[in-house]
């Protein structure tokens, strides 16, 4: 039996940061589409109920489990004690739905959610600031681990953890309790090679986000100093196998560190252009092929 399971983010149907993308698509349509494509899991989205009593039956009715859900960390702006207090509702939801990891990224100083701010304007921490941040993040992760949940920190363009150099500092200044959500698209957009980074970071990867990238759109966005959301609207991301990444190499790297857990399709596009069911079906078919080829 495979040690990996396939999940998909609702971003294929509607975008949390750009409500104009798929805002008219119901949660029921989204969940039914996930099941129809063959996925066993889903991640959270803004349309999802925020209580176990409401959410779990909706997922189960569509043969789905909750793989995880994004948490907006603000440790650059608040104390660990404040973060622990703030996380309680989300923590209760994830625990109640049987999740093992919590996906989270630093948002207190990010630019990725504002369509008017270029990615080049992101905040870059000094090494001293990374040490301070890493200490706080580790303490927060230690607390979550005591609650039975592993923090899966998400590197993301437009945030303090975007580049391979940022990931080096993440590794250097955070403890083992801080796991990593590795994202193939953000690794590439941030200037790295996804397969090489997986080989380097594998011992910390506890959750895997898969998206493909259209390199011509990415290069244009960087050259024009576009915002992250502008590049999303331009189609920078797509489902695995529909862009320019080498998925055989990526999954060979995943195989090398014996990954166990969820493999999630998180590939935000405009659903008016990339018809959600078509792309969800393609994503499942492609990922299943890559997993079989890699013998995961």
TrEMBL record:
Xylose isomerase-like TIM barrel domain residues: 35-275
Chain ranges passing through the membrane: none
Cross-referenced InterPro entries: IolE/MocC, IolE/XylAMocC-like, Xyl_isomerase-like_sf, Xyl_isomerase-like_TIM-brl
Keywords: Lyase
Any one Gene Ontology molecular-function term assigned to this protein's record: myo-inosose-2 dehydratase activity
EC main group: lyase
EC number: 4.2.1.44
UniProt protein name: Inosose dehydratase
Organism: invertebrate metagenome
